[in-house]
Design goal:
It holds the Pfam family CHAT. It contains 41 helices and eleven strands. It is mostly helical and about 950 residues long.
Length: about 950
């Protein structure tokens, strides 16, 4: 056991040794022994005093001892003395962070590893372990980081392979893990990642290590590789490791770190991919962390900023007003945290700087300029000061809109870009923000040099692999710049470049489907205007994306809000495409396109309730499973009530207690959609089911005309057309006049305005007569002429399948039709008209019902009062149908919302005699007024699982009106 000495005793020993040295010649063996003892005494004294002078003198004495002749009988050989020197240098490098010491230690330890250390009684494993630690210090100091991590991995794997019973593997692996954590916190690269990950995986197999740092280090390494390669396997493995640490007990720093890293990882994935469930998981984890007490103020400030961004993203995705309120609340909390703290306490964000008065902003700018003047380029703080100066100028510009402040921002951006590591996963950001600011400078100054540089910067970004996940955003920004330059200079090259970039953007899997769909519509319009050959590709891409952009919305209300958001861009796209196909003479393809577009939301609802008879006969288990998933999806889609509450029970969240009911709804819906997609793919692989739930071909939908021709009106700004569909002959086209589109809009507008005067008003009746006459001139006359030309006899059954404004115009009543006998006749006097929302619905309605003992019946719901003078007469007419089918009546006090919903479950048809209310922009809140002004909403009726409503028509009419 080593003898312990006090400082006083060591001082006496040092004094005695120094006296002895002064009397002994250097060539004498005793001189060497005294130097050895003096070096060790100084080293011992440093352990007690912690004075750097003792360590420095110890190093000097050990260095001298190496070059002295060996001392007879002294136990340290020259290699051992050299090793003691290395240990002292290592201690000084570790505790005082002197770069030159680190370089020496690394060089000396590498030299020692090349010697037969066992011969000199020096532990090879200890030398290797120390080299690992020295290399980590070198990484930390960034003196020569090239290749350090790679060498560390090799050394660690060597130590692991030795199966030593000592603590060397533990020290080495924990040191490697510390380096990984350090790199992560500094957002620096770790290479080679694959080697690091495999090494840490091997280390996890050694139970003796016993520290949470190893799974944490492995998780962080996987996160860094995920950021580079976007591998879901890496994400899943990292999250599993972090969850295992979080679940361990007792709660300590490791668990807190794991919770923080898990939240960051979820946030990264939500930023990469548009999947709504990813956003909900990240929101849940951040909300849970902010609700804990263990976050320090700096982390709390940072996470509050992230939570504000996540909540804002939820609002943008789903239109949730609560999410916007939550975002504002977190922003206020973040600013409050910063305002009650000393300057520099937190890493300030835009919201913090925005809260300062202009005087403080200008003062910060002056102080930073002074700091930068005293900090040479290359200094570790130089870029930090440049970045801070840029942010404060940005804050000032947001208030003054002074171009000089923006120019200062751009100068700083250029400095940061010049020193950026473009190979780093986030190395593209300086260029990204520079491009945005250059375009902003063009908007402020109208100087084309800013515009040209913005285009150049964004083109360069598209070549950077690290910016791959932001291509959609980059291309949109590049579109803006190219569009402006095209407007100013009229260069065809800019237009061609834009069109070439469209496919890259709309196929970007990192972008939201709804955004890709909207951009594909823009692509189609621009290509069509420019007569570019990509028009058809653009329309086909838009058609392939439109359904997914609605299905990803979890509720009917959100689906409707997305449709409204696409007004003027995406809502007309199927009609645009059909008009293009008609222009190309592709009538059958146009009818297929219109069928797909008209049936979008409607077909989704019908698809969820799709008849399983044929599938049940072929594969009953698949049919049962699909029906169950469809039922669950339908329940979720209609789970939000008009009051905004969510009616769903899913047993809680598996992600964390920070997930709210809407978040759980989103996660559950996405899981069900994934299960359904897998199941549908399996069904489509079955013989005879290749077209299961796919858009029907023309060869199928032409049978919609088996009971009479179907007249399809495509009301479109590009060109409007009327198509007549026959079962056994090609479609027939009725060209329209150039002003057809505008005239139809005016007819609809006049009727809508007149309705406000009341349906019994003279104004409405006069307008209705005029509109019916206008409809005849616009549609009726050419249709009747065409039907007669084609040999369709009068009193034949015909079907209207209208689009756009014609969904709200009374086509069946248009007229009067001029006649030789002077008798007024209307369209329904010549033909027997009916309406169909889609051709598929018409075909489905003609299929024989399954054999059942069920007898169709009708539910009459009435709430008559003085304001409905014809109510009782109408009721009598409906009740007289009792001779043909059973009629059940709910009237007055019996017609409660609950009673009506229950009645709807037992009747195939329903007729309402009461007032109704429409909610602008909220079609599912439209309602019938029942007894005591109680409301029965459209959503209540849809939920009854009895009436299959034409949701698409309803939404379209809501948009138009």
């Amino acid at each position: 056991m080593a003898q312990e000495f006090s400082i006083m005793e060591l001082d006496q020993m040092i004094t005695n040794l120094q006296r002895a040295l002064s009397r002994i010649p250097r060539s004498h063996p005793a001189y060497t022994a005294c130097i050895h003892r003096l070096a060790r005494s100084r080293s011992k004294r440093y352990e007690l005093s912690e004075q750097k002078e003792d360590l420095d003198k110890s190093i000097v004495h050990f260095t001298e001892a190496i070059f002295l002749p060996p001392s007879w009988g002294f136990y340290l050989n020259v290699v051992q003395v050299f090793f003691q020197l290395v240990l002292s240098l290592f201690r000084r490098s570790n505790e005082f962070k002197q770069p030159e010491d680190v370089k020496c230690v690394v060089e000396y330890l590498r030299y020692l590893r090349g010697l037969p250390l066992d011969t000199f009684e020096v532990s090879h494993e200890l030398v290797t372990s120390l080299l690992v630690q020295a290399l980590i210090i070198q990484v930390e100091l960034e003196t020569d980081g090239t290749g350090d991590i790679e060498e560390i991995v090799i050394l660690c794997r060597e130590i692991l392979a030795c199966h030593s019973s000592a603590d060397y593997p533990t020290h080495a692996i924990l040191t490697l893990t510390t380096a990984i954590l350090l790199k992560f916190l500094q957002w620096k690269q770790v290479e080679p990642l694959d080697g690091v990950i495999q090494c840490l995986r091997d280390a996890l197999k050694i139970s003796a290590l016993g520290s949470h740092l190893v799974p944490l280090g492995l998780a962080i390494s996987l996160v860094l590789r995920y950021i580079k390669k976007y591998s879901n396997d890496d994400y899943d493995e990292a999250m599993t490791l972090l969850e295992s640490v979080i679940a361990s007990s007792p709660l300590g720093d490791d668990q807190i770190q794991a919770s923080v890293f898990a939240a960051i990882l979820a946030r990264v994935r939500a930023g990469f991919y548009p999947n709504p469930e990813y956003l909900e998981e990240a929101t849940s984890r951040f909300r849970t962390l902010l609700g804990s007490s263990f976050l320090d103020n700096d982390l709390r400030h940072c996470f509050t900023d992230s939570m504000a961004s996540l909540a804002k993203k939820r609002f943008e995705n789903f239109g949730l007003t609560e999410a916007l309120q939550e975002s504002h609340s977190y922003t206020s909390e973040m600013v409050s945290l910063a305002s009650f703290s000393a300057p520099g306490t937190f890493h300030e964000v835009d919201a913090d700087r925005a809260a300062y008065p202009m005087k403080v902003v200008e003062e910060r700018i002056r102080n930073l300029r002074e700091l930068i003047s005293k900090t040479p380029p290359g200094n570790s703080n130089h870029n930090t000061h440049i970045k801070d100066l840029m942010n404060w100028h940005k804050t000032k510009f947001s208030r003054t809109n002074d171009i000089t402040d923006l120019e200062e921002v751009i100068k700083c951006r250029r400095v940061l870009l010049a020193s950026a590591d473009t190979s780093h996963p986030f190395g593209f950001q300086p260029a990204l923000f520079l491009g945005v600011d250059l375009y902003k400078a063009f908007e402020c100054s109208n100087k084309t040099e800013y515009l040209d540089e913005s285009i150049t910067v964004h083109r360069g970004l598209l070549e950077m692999q690290s910016a791959r996940r932001y291509h959609f955003t980059l291309i949109n920004q590049l579109f803006n710049s190219l569009t402006e330059r095209l407007r100013l200079l009229g260069r065809r090259q800019d237009l061609d470049e834009m069109i070439e970039l469209f496919p890259l953007a709309v196929n970007d899997k990192f972008a939201k489907v709804s955004d890709r769909f909207a951009l594909s519509c823009v692509w189609a319009s621009i290509a069509r205007l420019a007569t570019h050959p990509s028009v058809s590709d653009a329309y086909q891409m838009a058609m392939s994306l439109i359904q997914s952009s609605f299905v990803s919305a979890p509720t009917l209300q959100v689906q409707h809000s997305r449709l409204v958001a696409l007004r003027g861009v995406g809502d007309e796209m199927p009609l645009d495409y059909a008009s293009y196909q008609i222009d190309m003479g592709q009538f059958t393809q146009a009818i297929e396109t219109l069928e797909q577009g008209r049936a979008l939301l409607w077909s989704e609802m019908r698809g969820l309730r799709n008849s399983m008879d044929r599938l049940s006969q072929f594969n009953s288990p698949l049919a049962t499973k699909l029906a169950a998933i469809n039922q669950d999806l339908e329940s979720l889609t209609m789970s939000v009530t008009p009051s905004g509450t969510i009616e769903i029970s899913d047993g809680g969240s598996q992600i964390g207690d920070g997930m709210d009911p809407f978040g759980r709804l989103v996660v559950k819906q996405q899981k069900l959609l994934e299960e359904r997609n897998v199941l549908v793919s399996q069904i489509q692989e079955l013989s005879g089911f290749g077209d299961f739930l796919k858009t029907p071909s023309f060869q199928t939908i032409r049978f919609a005309a088996s009971d009479g021709p179907v007249i399809i009106i495509n009301h479109n700004e590009w060109r409007s057309d009327i198509l007549i569909l026959f079962q056994d002959s090609p479609p027939s086209l009725i060209p329209t006049t150039d002003d057809f589109y505008d005239r139809a809009n005016k007819l609809r507008d006049r009727l809508v305005v007149a309705r406000k005067e009341g349906l019994d008003s003279g104004e409405y009746k006069r307008t209705l007569r005029s509109v019916l006459d206008g409809l005849y001139n616009l549609v009726g006359e050419p249709v009747i002429h065409k039907l007669r030309t084609l040999g369709v006899p009068e009193q034949s059954r015909i079907w209207w399948c209208p689009t756009s404004v014609f969904c709200s115009l009374p086509l069946h009543a248009m007229g009067p039709i001029p006649s030789d006998d002077g008798v007024k006749r209307y369209f329904s006097d010549l033909y027997i008209p009916s309406y169909t929302p889609t051709l598929s619905a018409l075909i489905e309605s003609r299929k024989p019902s399954p054999k059942t003992s069920y007898q169709p019946s009708l539910l009459l719901v009435a709430n008559p009062d003085e304001s409905l003078p014809g109510a009782f007469g109408e009721m009598e007419v409906i009740q007289s149908l009792n001779m043909r089918l059973p009629v059940a009546t709910l009237c007055g006090k019996n017609a409660t919302p609950a009673g009506v919903v229950e009645g709807l479950r037992h009747h195939g048809f329903a007729h309402f005699v009461c007032h109704g209310t429409l909610e602008t922009g909220k079609p599912f809140d439209a309602s019938f007024k029942l007894i005591d002004d109680k409301r029965l909403t459209l959503l209540d009726i849809v939920r009854s699982h009895c009436l299959l409503l034409n949701l698409h028509s309803l939404l379209h009419v809501t948009l138009r009106n």
